[in-house]
Automatic annotation (TrEMBL):
NCBIfam families: ant_ant_sig
Domain (STAS): residue spans on this chain: 1-110
Top-level taxon of the source organism: Bacteria
Pfam families: STAS
Name this protein carries in UniProt: Anti-sigma factor antagonist
Coiled coil: none
Length: 111
């Protein structure tokens, strides 16, 4: 359902479209089952093709952040558009989960 690549020991998950109530839980379950439970707890979410994120999607990333921390990992966002950046700032989630302009910058920051 989702694909990831690995760069310098960091899983990079490419997202597409909207992250909303219809698909956020399946994203969360996939990341936990296929990455975090398998020891890949440093994760960059590539937002280059994401149009929007709703409140349910934000909650999902908070949950993933907690899961990654519990596994001695971290998550980061790469390339969010201006609307997503504003939403992260309004909710103060940008203080909890760092965003970077590119995947490579995010990978370098958390590897």
């Amino acid at each position: 359902m989702y694909t990831f690549t690995e760069q310098f020991g960091v899983a990079v998950v490419a997202l597409d479209g909207e992250i909303n109530m219809q698909n956020a839980m399946s994203l969360r379950n996939w990341v936990v089952d296929n990455l975090i439970k398998k020891g890949k707890s440093k994760i960059v979410f590539d937002f280059a093709k994401v149009n929007s994120v709703d409140s349910f999607g934000l909650g999902t990333f908070v949950s993933l952040h907690k899961s990654a921390l519990s596994a001695n990992g971290v998550i980061a966002f790469a390339g969010p558009n201006e609307n997503v950046k504003k939403l992260l700032a309004m909710t103060a989630l940008d203080k909890v989960i760092r965003s970077y302009p590119s995947v490579m910058e995010a990978v370098n920051a958390i590897k």
